[in-house]
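Please, does this match?
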Amino acid sequence: MKIMKGKLIVIEGTDASGKSTQFSMLCGNLEKTGVSFKKVVFPQYDKPSSALIHMYLNGEFGTKPDDVNAYAASTFYAVDRYASFKKEWSGYYKSGGLILCDRYTTSNAIHQASKLSGEEREKYLEWLFGFEYELMGLPRPDCVIFLDMPPKYAQMLLKNREGKTMDIHEKDAEYLKRCYDSSLNLCEKYGWVRIPCTESGEICGKELIQEKILNAIKDVLNK
């Protein structure tokens, strides 16, 4: 019996990149055009599988991101993804369905790889993707979209957020800069689609960014 495989599109970005807004817009645009899909948002903050993530981001294991090593932190997020896949969307995906993800394994690559450098960083990335895609059996993305929002603009947007308590990642400007630099390297290394979110020193309008995303995923949708 032939085993079918669906399609998995991931939207990534550093904190305050406008990722949640663009993900919501993308879902809305695909619904309007009659494309069937299932959306998944990580982490699943409202599910028991995110318990360790809450503790980590709230600073219970240390008040700085580097207080928890890349491997340990990655397992917190991997368990959450595994629970989601097994309980909510594995059947849909395996029957050929389209999955849209707001963050995925690729977020671990962005955030946790920034804690390492050189050979140790490469060793970690090899472990991460082998752990989640091979050993845990999570599907590999068909397309990863990275929203390129430079740190100085992201910091401005973070400061303008009203009524939101910042977690240990968002409080650490130096860490966010490392994550951004890590992201650019990952885009080049793994062929992620980089969507520039600024032009001529100004943040692009959300409609323009969305247009770029829609153009980037056309080939995946039409396969």
In short: The chain has a mean pLDDT of 92. The domain at 7-222 is CATH 3.40.50.300 (Rossmann fold). The longest strand covers residues 7-13. DSSP finds nine helices and seven strands in the chain.
